[in-house]
Amino acid sequence: MQSARLRARCGASGRGRACVSVRGRRAALATTTATTTARRLGQSRRHVRVSAAAEDPYSILGVAPGADSEAINRAYKSKIATATTDDEKKAIETAHTSIMMSSLSARLQGGGSAVAKEIRYADRAPMFRWRPRLHMCEQKDILINGGIWAAAVYWANKSTYSPWQPLMLGFAVLFIRMNYKLMPLMPRPATDDRKEIRNADTKRLGRAFGVVGGLFALFAGVVSFVPQVLMALRLTVPMWLLGSLYEFSVGVAGLVGSMIGASFCR
């Protein structure tokens, strides 16, 4: 009787262990399945977010949503020039077309002031495209340009000959630095055609000379008229605008304009 009871207890105990083992395996399997499903869902969501970001035309071109047509076209040309594969070029062209069409659609459907002006007219080229626009250099480049101006002015002040020689040398250096500043903004086309490359270089050099030289002429012209204006108003003309210092002051003022153009404009 005791042995029968013992065998019955052992049998019951074995079935209990077997049931516990089966339940444990089922729970572990359910946990593994849930973890795998969660990982797949997380990867799917991340993939959706990455795809949405990659399909954003503004992110592809690297411009802000409110950028004007010039900034968009400049970014488009820069991206196309650096693209290495056909897929990249196709994505860039698609993004550029999408932005232009969306701006046109916003203007047609927005009506009046419902849409910001920069967005409504993003596909239109601005008037006076030749005018200088704000584009600040890095702080070190601004300091270098200021140092070039100071060195040229010091040399012109100490020179026993005409002060224009050192000032023109400073202007030439600022012009070269302005050209290098415009290279990322007006890159060479991605082609082997020498004519297109020459045209792009000529256009960039003309832009650099126009900004630096135009501001030189503006600042020098303003200072050159100061004595006449003061005399017309019967005011005292400063000593630095009389005699030999007049020519020096006009040149220094012009070089200030060139330094400002090379540092803060494009």
Task: Describe it.
Helix content is 75%, strand content 0%. The chain has 266 residues and is an all-alpha fold. The protein has two domains: 57-120, no CATH class; 139-264, no CATH class. The longest helix has 53 residues, at 2-54. The protein starts with a helix and ends with a helix. 21% of the residues are buried. Mean pLDDT is 76; it is low at 1-22, 43-53 and 111-116.
Q: How are the secondary structure elements laid out?
A:
Elements lengths: L1 H53 L2 H5 L7 H14 L3 H25 L6 H4 L18 H20 L5 H19 L11 H39 L11 H21 L2
Protein name: J domain-containing protein
Pfam families: CPP1-like
Keywords: Membrane, Transmembrane, Transmembrane helix
Structural domains: how many: 2
Helicity level: over 70%
Low-confidence segments, given as residue ranges, are 1-22, 43-53, 111-116
Count of DSSP-assigned helices: 9
Tell me the overall shape: elongated
Separation of termini? 106 Å
Largest sheet: none
Number of strands: 0
Mean pLDDT: 76
Question: Rg, please?
Answer: 35 Å
Q: Tell me the fraction of residues in β-strands, as a range.
A: under 5%
Q: What series of H and E elements makes up the topology?
A: HHHHHHHHH
Classification by helices and strands = mainly alpha
Protein name: J domain-containing protein
Organism: Chloropicon primus
InterPro entries: CPP1-like, DnaJ_domain, J_dom_sf
Keywords: Membrane, Transmembrane, Transmembrane helix
